[in-house]
Every structure is written in C-alpha cells, then in structure tokens.
Prior knowledge:
Number of helices: 8
Bound molecules: iron/sulfur cluster
Number of domains: 1
Largest sheet: 7 strands, parallel
Order of helices and strands: EEHEEEEHEHHHEHEHEEEEHEEEE
Amino acid sequence: MGRDSSISWLHRPGTVPRTWNPQRGCFPTEPSCKFCYVPRSCLRGSGAGGAYDGLIKLGKDSLTGAERPKWTGEIKTLPAKLDEPFGWRDPSTVFVNSTSDLFYERFDNDWIASVMGVIALQALQRTVEPHLYILLSHKLKRAKEWFEWVAGRPEGPGRYCIERAAERSKRARKVYEVIFGSLFQPAVPWPLPGLWFYASVGTNKEARENLPRAAQIPAVVRGISLEPLLEDVDLRPALRGDYDWDRSTETPFQSVFIGGESGDFAWVDDRKVPLFRSTNIAHLRSALSQVGEFPHVAGFLKQVGSRCFAETDEDARGWAGGVVAGRTHRWILRTSDKKGEEPLDWPPELRLRQWPEAA
Ligand code: SF4
C-alpha cells in the first residue's frame, strides 16, 4: 500500500489518494465490524510466510453458517512502513490504516505514538502543500484513553509522539535531527494539523456509546463515519453537541461520511447467502437529511453498498440505476458496481460529496 489508491472517496481534488498501513491485525468488537472487509480482501496473504500469516483464518459465520475469512486477533507492527510518508512528494490524502484500526487494544501506547509522530513531523516539515491524514476508528474507548494518556506526557503530546517515531523510523530520525538539532526547539501543535479523526458507528447503540467518547478527542476536524449504515441512526444529539466536546473545534463534529455495507456471497449447501447486510435507502436519506440540518457539517455519501433496497415505491423514487422487485423487500435498487459507489445510479438528492471547510 502507500501507492495511489483506487478507493474512490479518497480522491480529493488536487491531492494524490493513498493508503498507509504501518500495522496489521484487528478483531471485531462492534456489531458494525461483523463483516469486516479486511480478512476477505487480505486472505490471499494469509498463507505460511504471507503478510497476513497468523492474522486471518477461515471460520464459520454465526449468522449464515458459511465459511468465511476472519481475524484471529493477532497483530504485526511494521516499523519500516513508518518511513513511507517521507517519500511522498505531492500533497496526498492518506487513509491511515485502511486495513487495521490504530486503536485496536493490542497495539501498545508507544506504537500508536510513533504512527502519530510521523504525522506530527510531517506537519512541521510540510507547511506548504501538507498531506491530509484521515484516521477512522471503531475503537473509541481505547482511542479516548490513548489521547488522555498522551496529553499527560511531560514533554507534550506532539513532541512525545515525534520522539517515539524517531526511535523506530530512520527517515523520521533524520527529519527529527534537522528540525530539533539546534537550540531553537519548535513547539509541536496539538491537535495535529493535517489529521482528521472519524468515529466509525453503524447503529444507534454504537452512536450513543461511542460518539460522546469521540467528541472528547482533540482533532482539527472531527467526523462521524456512519458505515456500514445498519439502521436509522439518530445523529442529532452528536451534531448539535448534546454532550461535551473537546474545544479545539467550535462545533463537535464537522463531517459525516455515510456508506452501506459491501461484500461477497457464499454458498451454504445449495443456498447463496450474502456476507454483508443490505442497506435501506430510507436510512441513507434520513442520515443525509439530518446532516442537512447543520450547515457547519459536510455530508459525504461514499457508497450505498452491495445491496440497497426500498420498502416503498416512494422510497425508490428517482433511482437512476434501475430497480427490480425483490423477494424480501419491495424493490432492489440496481447498482453498476459491487459497492454501489457510482453516484449516477443514485437519485440526485443523494449525490452529496462535501469535504469539510478545513480542507
Ligand atoms: S475495527 Fe475496522 S479493521 Fe477492525 S474489525 Fe472492525 S472494521 Fe475491521
């Protein structure tokens, strides 16, 4: 990874889309993680000696009985990958850990600090044409604890992270020596410029538990990643700030990504079963309409998922990709790609792809 990415939502105007994966491994703890796409997409590397050897195994799915790839819970850190961002010339939009979660409990505090330290060094080094790092996490309890812990480091959180990066990465060490090698010791801004933090939730329960935690995390842009969207999630308490938030921003959340779940089918006996959950278009509309009530919040529909459906004729109105009558739902809404990420298939009012103003 680290090269240009084909992930369509990362294509931010004027920047190179990239993924950066300095670690591997995770384990699902939230309902929305159930069909995590990573074990499926990285299964080929899970053989002996492969990149995901020991991290992914085949196991039975509790819902469908199908055999499918799952996380084992083991992890690997890849310190050499901490060097990677220092080789990117053009301003980039970087999805941090697209195949893991930085705050998965088994990654220790100093490892997380070293990843953050690379971003902190780049913020000092690249004041012109900065990169933008986008970090999504389902592990909000751990994320909040980590940010509280690092805030208590005597040298300051940014400097602490930079020193941990310099211990593990040769290129970070070089940049560190150039920047801090004289009597003049620049202050390291915190929250980190160029790092946007998104809390991933897919249900009301996850939103109620995790968004108040996410709101406490210091970030220049704080967002909600409503993905996979599994029900009609009430975003209003979070967007209007019903609970305390970290005052590095004027408002609690400035951006909402929305997406339906994508995935493959499996055969169980002679039945074809989906290894993903369908998306109700009414829930997508509801999320976008709630975002529309808050002018300071940017809404971004990434994809409608592998199977999007409408329960009423009214809900199916304006769908441009074609509809077919479904067995369990009134209408199945056709998409021209497997993830449902082509906006031209969607009704015009769903084609919202806004970036927050700090971009
Ligand atoms: S936190 Fe992310 S990477 Fe980890 S299991 Fe959940 S969806 Fe997958």
